[in-house]
Amino acid sequence: MDSTFPRTIVITGASDGIGAAAARLLSAAGHHVAVVGRSPEKTAKVAREVGGDHFVADFTRLADVRRLAAELDHAYPRIDVLANNAGGILGDRTKTADGHERTLQVNHLAPFLLTGLLLDKLLASRASVIQTSSAGARLFGHLDLDDLDHDRDFTPHRAYGTAKLENILFTTELHRRFHDQGLSSAAFHPGVVATSFGTESTSLLRPLYQNRIGKLVLATPERGAAQLVRFAQTEPGVGWQSGEYYERGRVARRVNPQARDADLARRLWDRTAELTGVAAG
User: Is residue 136 part of a domain?
Assistant: First the structure.
């Protein structure tokens, strides 16, 4: 990314939680923030607060993602940062209208598709692509390319952890394919944050996010957003290293062993491109 200021920053999942907090902090720093969310009312409200544009898309529908990409491409001559922040641990195993397990689609397929459709503009802008991942990738994730929809091994935690692992692999493969053309990428774990995360889930963690005592011990959305804000505002190679996964503000030392498998990252990219119809790279 070059030193353009203010930057145009697109944040998905920005109608609440970490995304909304990041939008407020980046707007206060003088950047132009495009707020993307699923709820028309909540998304518009955050956009009014930050003085930015808002775009509505439901990532359980890939047609929405394609429409969103077209709208963003039309709205902005350049995009300096794409923050793929939308996602979460969802409920019982269900298929979307596109035929994919919902956790996989919302957390991995949709951001892959959005990034791919905007890739020419991101390359021309020498942009950064930021993925909100999770330590759940290490705790629960296991990627089987022959069973991306978890037909054989579904639990909410397994599906979520694997999707967050896919975020990390997507980050490393973006770096490998496009960093020499000016694109940078990073993934990060925001911590355990007091947001609406998990409210659609049957996860055992759901009560932690919903009761008052739990919220007292969780990090604030602003703290959770701090790394996203850092990646959006600072230069890759100076403030952070492209292609890496971060926890607690630094490159993570302990990761799922699959996260370091370069061949798996390449094969996941190719398989995801087939599923989404994006042939970029």
Answer: yes
Q: Give CA–CA dist 21/188, Å, rounded.
A: 16
Q: How many residues does the chain have?
A: 281
Structural domain including 89 reads 8-276
Q: Is the peptide bond before 111 cis (omega within 30 degrees of 0)?
A: no
Mean pLDDT of the chain: 91
Q: Which of 84, 90, 115 is nearest to 14 (CA)?
A: 84
pTM for this model (two decimals): 0.91
Phi (first) and psi of residue 31, to 5 degrees: -90, 160
- Residue 145 domain-assigned (yes or no): yes
Whether 208 shows a pLDDT value over 50: the answer reads no
State the catalytic residues. Answer: 160
Decide if 151 contacts 26 (C-beta within 8 A). Answer: no
The pLDDT tens digits of the residues spanning 136-167 come to: 999 999 999 999 999 999 999 999 999 999 99
